[in-house]
Amino acid sequence: xxGLVLDVTWQVVTRFFTSNPxxxxxxxxxxxxxxxxxxxxxxxxxxxxxxxxxxFVNKFSDNVKNRIVSLVLIFVTVFSTCILFVGGSCxxxxxxxxxxxxxxxxxxxSLVYLVIPMSGLLFVLFTAEFYKNYSNNI
Length: 138
What we know:
This protein is mostly helical.
């Protein structure tokens, strides 16, 4: 987050106070934002700050609530494993194999895509932690 703030500040300074605006700052800000979005989503999931339908779930009996929570944890695990971890790993590998680089920075695009499988792994680990805590409380 600090890197994003410094990057955007530098972009504003060079755009308005010099005759030669920085060319790489927009691309770097985009990459920082992608990383912050994926890692922030995993962090919000762990903290329970994600969007949920608790209002409707709380209307059910405890037995039904437990089944719903178990089902949600299974869905999150399957999605995180299949889409984020496996799909993100394939995407990062493809970008690395094709030697895709960013236009301004010349960085490998696979470095940007690596956050996808990383966040998928975090989601799976956090779900396992939830399930452990949840099964201890039943």
